[in-house]
Write a structure and sequence with these properties.
By secondary structure, the chain is of the alpha+beta class. The protein has 7 helices and 28 strands. It folds into 4 domains: 156 residues, Molybdenum Cofactor Biosythetic Enzyme, Chain A; 58 residues, Molybdopterin biosynthesis moea protein, domain 2; 88 residues, Molybdopterin biosynthesis moeA protein, domain 3 (Beta Complex); 70 residues, MoeA, C-terminal, domain IV (Beta-clip), CATH 2.40.340. The strands form 8 sheets. Strands 7-4-6-5-9-8 form a 6-stranded mixed sheet, with no helix packed on it. The radius of gyration is 32 Å and the shape is elongated.
Length: 408
């Protein structure tokens, strides 16, 4: 039996102070070239500048007939203008004929415009009669013609550094021939789970043991926030084993999420190990749930102590670890949740000096608080539509008061 005595928290840090510490100490990672097909959601580390015009040639913007526009002037359904079909233009190759007086070229969308033509008459505005086409409407110069560089000009700044790449951004980068955009490296995030009572995630609970619920939750959260989760086996509550797992995690990752063993019990080895191996500026936070949360640094890498109780783990991740991972990935650090404002169906009580994370449902246009206690009751988060944060300077919110709800 361990002879280590349990002790209380020396002090509890203010939530805002922990967030400030994260912003001061956590910076985005280095840049790397990324294959275009893998760059979605990544953050550009270098401006994307076009080396070419897009399009690089005049092209048809519609299926039809390439003509000299002035030769169609005056054309009507009752008085169409006849043109001899001199050739055909197809995408990917040059036209097989030029447009001379009285002639046209049958052309498909995206095909290069033939010499001598300055407009495309849509197929539906012409009648084909053998090798002659009769145009029933006048065309103006430039009609249905894509000009050189009308989308992007060579030398133009296409996307600025710091932009998180969306699907349409990838399309633009592809169009200018940027095969390997330079992006911020994805943070590798080690998920270190401890606890003698834990079975691997997904196994059926038996006896006095419970299944690990935090790992799958944290893996998905890390991916959402732009990180690459690194998982390993559950670590027993043995000091030497926890120390070895922590050493491996720090060596292989940019950030460590340690779930369980973060409080002040006899088997909570992580706080003292982090302090021994580096520094532990935060252990205990003035919030509910997740008050045992902590933040340390080992080899200058952030190590988050997340409580083992699942709701507390989620809360501590939301407030602290997720912000750090988004900063490492150069994403916007604030919560990625949609926020709505609605009136409370009933009051929320809180305590001055403490930040509360309250799970809520939305029913008939009003916010209904769920249990504010029970950090092990994870189903409160699945029944909830989101959460309300009660700040440290408030004693709660009254019935009917409008509050901000962060939607899961």
């Amino acid at each position: 039996m361990s002879d280590v005595r349990m002790r209380g928290f020396r002090e509890r840090a203010d939530v805002d102070a922990v967030v400030k510490l994260i912003d001061q100490r956590v910076r985005h990672l280095a840049a790397e070239p990324v294959p275009l097909l893998e760059a979605g959601g990544r953050v550009l580390a270098r401006d994307a500048v076009a080396a070419v015009d897009v399009p690089g040639f005049r092209r048809a913007a519609m299926d039809g007939y390439a003509v000299k526009a002035e030769e169609t002037f005056g054309a009507t359904p009752d008085d169409p203008r006849p043109f001899r079909i001199a050739g055909t233009g197809m995408p990917g190759r040059g036209p097989d004929a030029a447009v001379e007086a009285g002639a046209c070229v049958r052309i498909m969308t995206g095909a290069p415009m033939p010499e001598g033509a300055d407009a495309v008459v849509p197929a539906e505005e012409a009648d084909l009669d053998g090798e002659t086409v009769r145009v029933r409407a006048a065309a103006t110069p430039g009609r249905n013609v894509g000009e050189v560089g009308e989308d992007v000009r060579a030398g133009a700044l296409v996307l600025r550094a710091g932009r998180r790449l969306r699907p349409q951004d990838l399309g633009v980068l592809a169009s200018i021939g940027l095969k390997l955009p330079t992006c911020v490296r994805k943070p590798r995030v080690a998920i270190l789970v401890t606890g003698n009572e834990l079975l691997p995630a997904g196994e059926r609970p038996t006896g006095f043991r419970i299944a690990d619920a935090n790992s799958p939750m944290l893996v998905d959260l890390v991916r959402r926030d732009g990180g690459v989760p690194l998982t390993g086996p559950i670590v027993k509550d043995d000091r030497a084993a926890v120390q070895e797992a922590l050493l491996v995690s720090v060596r292989e990752a940019d950030c460590v999420l340690a779930s369980g063993g973060s409080s002040v019990g006899t088997e909570d080895h992580l706080p003292s190990l982090v302090e021994k191996m580096g520094e532990l500026p935060v252990h205990g936070v003035a919030m509910r749930p997740a008050s045992p949360a902590g933040l340390g640094f080992v080899a200058k890498k952030p190590v988050f102590l997340l409580p083992g109780n699942p709701v507390s783990c989620l809360c501590a991740y939301d407030f602290f670890a997720g912000r750090a991972i988004r900063r490492l990935a150069a994403r916007h650090p604030e919560w990625p949740y949609t926020k709505v404002r609605m009136p409370l169906a009933r009051k929320i009580a809180s305590q001055l000096g403490r930040t509360d994370y309250v799970r809520v449902r939305i029913e008939e246009g009003k916010v209904v608080p769920l249990a504010v206690r029970g950090a092990a009751i994870l189903t409160t988060t699945t029944r909830a539509h989101g959460f309300v944060v009660v700040g440290k300077d408030l004693e709660g919110h009254g019935e009917g008061e409008t509050v901000a709800v962060h939607l899961y």
